[in-house]
Amino acid sequence: MSEKWVRKTLTAELLSDAHFGSGSGGDGIDALIARDRYDRPVIWASHLEGVLRDAQRRLKGDEEAKAFFGKAGGQQQSAIFTSLYTEDSKNPERHVWRSTARASFDNRAPKDEALRVVEYVPKGTQFVGKVELPESQLEALERLVKEVDGLGSGRSSGSGRVKLSLSDRDPAPASNSGVTPSDREAAAPTGRLVLLLKNCDPLCITATATPDNLIPSLAFIPGRTLLGALAAWLIKEESRDVASLLTSGKVAVSDALPLPSAPPNLEDMNLEEMEVLPAPLSLQSEKPKGSADELPWWAQQSTPKKRLDALLASEASTSKEKLKRPEDDLFLFRANEAEAWEPFRPARRVRLRNGRPDPKQEDASLFAIEQIVEETHFFAELQGPVEELNRLAKKLGPVLEGRRWLRVGRAGAPVEVVRLAWVGERPEAKLEETMLLTLTSDLLVRDEFLRWRTSLDEKSLKELLGDDVQLVNQTQNQLQDETRIHGFNGTARLWRMPAAAIRRGSVFKISGSGIAKLAERVTQNNWLGERTHEGFGRFRLDAALPGVTNEIGKSNSPSPVPDVDEEAIAAETKSWFAKHESLASSGSGSERKPSLSQWNDLVGDIERGDAGALTRRLIPTTAGGRSWEHPIAKEILVKLEKVPEDERKLYARFFVRWLRAEMRKNKEEKR
């Protein structure tokens, strides 16, 4: 009998300012806080688990900590934690702390080279996450939550004091979008089950078996990964006979392809009509032309990419246009046939981590992980005989109803089912004399010597599709590519043997009487090549592919002001400083000027959105603020007051950078 699982809400309220390091710096700050896809502070699950593990070591010893949180060699941690996110405004208040070492024991003068600027989350901020674990471990977790009183760096000096608490989750979470057991049972089972998934935390699908200090991630969830996650869940629930439906190939699992970050009316969309596919290799973009501008290419104003159908472009033009293939992470989406295809790229971020590959290693090694950002939606299908698929769905009930999570990717990120639908057979495509066969997933196929094929020519295409199918022209070298397939066997704890495949998105223009047989294979889910139950070898037939379109960046994560605008602001503030370089010299007597720390405080107040940041300095009421009455300093304050409010923080930040650089230069010259 499988064990009962519970899901709890974990809340963290900051009792003091906290710094959750991101491992990166910028904007004049040495240490920034970690942020989610909406640019809000976040406490990563890995940090929370590490602090709880340390608490368990203190209470019960190292062996008990390994029993609860897992250990190397295959014992996986039972509890699944999400990161803790804040639901405050998208631009929450932040505090900037500065510290420096003193010149000597008996000299409190600060050492300029030791100045450190750190970004902090202010006290009172609340973070919320969830944890799913066996009910038998709930009491132990409640004890650990009471034991933890600090998170982030500087806990020993009073930073990051926190109040952690566990509570029952909402009975009907909004992310489930109304999927209930009754809805699932009311739908008549068919041979196709469509799933809409969402990752609750950043997700890394390792793209290579030999990563260096950067671990790259695929932009989608391969079918073999999703199949493994479903099978592992069933095995853990003591349903090995049902898991064998997946591993033996009786039920096939497609790749889970991402959707745009915010598809309109996602809950009202018809899952049967929704389509998402990797960008065909024929959807190419014009190569950027050279520019004689003084700015470097990366600082110039970027324009949306114009994408052309390379097949149509080559037929319509005798001259060879310089076109660039689509990126590996470019996808196309449309809600139904009446709407136009929308190109998009799922948002991915790189996160810096510390780790010790060797437990005896004294210092931690720095490495980076590329991750698909949290709350990305994915579209996947399960296919098979109606009886077998219905049997599988019943055993997966808690997962399909959103009551349990799947563990997917590196470190087992939680992924939940948002919506599901039983759908009928695919509608037959309108056939013409010539059709375009597009691979919607990687194709594994061998030659007569059992070697993996990395391209298809006229002969090999006929061997795969039949003698009654011909290749119309010889553009296959331009419209197909190869890729490497890697995988990991979680049961054996070993990497799978790598394979070579023909990459998804490859396009072939075909003709002949065999097109009708191919169309029939599509409706029957009879795919090409090997390991089709893992999502390989899927294809579609079209009379025409997406043509001219402009790429839109809806799904990309929020980005700062473009570099070209920052360059202009930097140049303008440089001209301000050039007229008032005397601000960088040390003042004396009646010529008292604001110090560098006072300028930094001004920048911090403006970035925090303090409405009175400039007013308090233009009309000082304290003795410490009298230095702002200096005529040149007051002139700079007036200039900042005239700048548009949304750009004011950039102007202040860049001006102080020029000022700080000149002050340091003056100090070096005096030495």
Structure description:
The protein has 671 residues and is α+β, with helices and mostly antiparallel strands. Among the domains are: 5-168, Alpha-Beta Plaits (2-Layer Sandwich), CATH 3.30.70; 174-277 and 336-425, 2-Layer Sandwich (Alpha-Beta Plaits); 563-670, no CATH class. It has 16 helices and 34 strands. The strands form eleven sheets. Strands 11, 13, 14, 23, 24 and 25 form a six-stranded antiparallel sheet that branches. Strands 3-9-1-10 form a four-stranded antiparallel sheet. Strands 18-16-17-34 form a four-stranded antiparallel sheet. Helix 12 (563-579) crosses helix 16 (648-670). The protein is globular and about 90 Å long. Residues 171-185 and 552-563 have low confidence and may be disordered.
Q: Summary?
A:
This protein has 671 residues and is α+β, with helices and mostly antiparallel strands. Helices cover 25% and strands 23% of the residues. The chain contains 16 helices and 34 strands.
Summarize the helices and strands and which ones pair or pack:
Layout: E1 5-14, E2 42-43, H1 45-60, H2 62-69, E3 80-81, E4 84-85, E5 95-99, E6 102-104, E7 107-110, E8 116-120, E9 126-134, H3 138-147, E10 162-168, H4 181-186, E11 192-199, E12 214-215, H5 223-236, H6 240-247, E13 252-253, E14 257-258, E15 275-278, E16 283-286, E17 306-309, H7 310-316, E18 323-324, E19 331-334, E20 342-344, E21 348-355, E22 365-372, E23 377-383, H8 386-395, H9 397-400, E24 406-408, E25 413-423, E26 434-439, H10 458-465, E27 470-471, E28 482-485, E29 488-489, E30 494-495, E31 499-502, E32 507-511, H11 515-523, E33 539-542, E34 549-550, H12 563-579, H13 596-607, H14 615-618, H15 631-642, H16 648-670
Parallel strand pairs: 12-22
Antiparallel strand pairs: 1-9, 1-10, 2-4, 3-9, 5-8, 6-7, 11-23, 11-25, 13-23, 14-23, 15-19, 16-17, 16-18, 17-34, 19-20, 21-22, 24-25, 26-32, 26-33, 27-32, 28-31, 29-30
Helix pairs in contact: 1-2, 5-6, 12-16, 13-16
